[in-house]
Amino acid sequence: MYMQLEDEFGDIVGKARRGQEIEPADLAREAGITEEELGKIERYELTPDPQTVARLAEELGLHPGKLQGSASKSYFPLYPAGRPGEGLVVEMMVLGTDFLVNGYVVGCQETGKGAVIDPGVDAEKILKTIEATGLEIEQVLVTHGHHDHVGVLSEICQATEAPAIINKAELGLLGGLATKVEGSLIDGEQVAIGKQMLVARGTPGHTEGSMSLVHPQAAFVGDALFAGSLGGTRNLKSYGEQRQTIGEHIMGLDERVTLFPGHGPATTVAEERAHNPFFL
């Protein structure tokens, strides 16, 4: 399981800058540092003094105290593998070797029905996890269409005879895997897993059709949110959408809800409210 966050201080600065389409020279000038120093910050080669962190936070619209916490590496989630929920089975799988991605086997304890979320790599590990849980997989749910989240979609669908379901706005990212898709995740609709219910919530920005799957005890947020950070965006419109929809659909949940991201450790709504610099 994870021992560090997916995103370091430099990632957060870089994501906030790129998301707002701010040129490095402009940010460096306003923050009172050189462009070379900014480059080193974004490459994790330099951690600036607290005064510079505060200026960067002001220019990027980030919370200064939380950004300082990122710079000083003072935050790590209390339960990086998540917490068990009542009646809800959640197996968090760290998939891959050098490049790690999270996948999930989720189920209803009472009925034994289940789903796979984001089968990115390592079909054998996913299938062994399914076998260990004893769940009957009825559907494969995909938060977004990037290859690291769908790389073994075909194998898992074939082995479980379960249909893939993804927001239709993501189909263009799937290429030939789009033929496996038999249903669409639509904002506000419920997805039944036995007697457990997930609500599909649109959290676009990282991709156009990114979805989060929200349960009263847990939310599977894909790459929309990481512990202490956000998934990357490349333009101001997407950046604004992501912050807005995460704020509405995720940060407003009960503080005890566990957040299961596409990369890095699990976290909670309370921890993200307290430590995520993107939310003021």
How would you characterize this protein structure?
The chain folds into 2 domains: 63 residues, 434 Repressor (Amino-terminal Domain), CATH 1.10.260; 188 residues, 4-Layer Sandwich (Metallo-beta-lactamase, Chain A), CATH 3.60.15. It is built from 11 helices and 14 strands. The strands form 3 sheets. It has a 6-stranded mixed β-sheet with strand order 1-2-3-4-5-6, covered by helices on one side. The protein has a 6-stranded mixed β-sheet with strand order 7-8-9-10-13-14. A two-stranded antiparallel sheet has the order 11-12. With 280 residues, it is of the alpha/beta class. Helices cover 34% and strands 22% of the residues. A hairpin with a 3-residue loop joins strand 9 and strand 10.
List the helices and strands and how they pair.
Layout: H1 9-19, H2 24-31, H3 35-42, H4 50-60, H5 64-71, E1 88-95, E2 101-108, E3 113-117, H6 123-133, E4 136-141, H7 147-150, H8 153-160, E5 164-165, H9 171-174, E6 181-183, E7 190-193, E8 196-202, E9 211-214, E10 218-222, E11 225-226, E12 229-230, H10 236-249, E13 258-261, E14 267-268, H11 269-275
Parallel strand pairs: 3-4, 4-5, 5-6, 10-13
Antiparallel strand pairs: 1-2, 2-3, 7-8, 8-9, 9-10, 11-12, 13-14
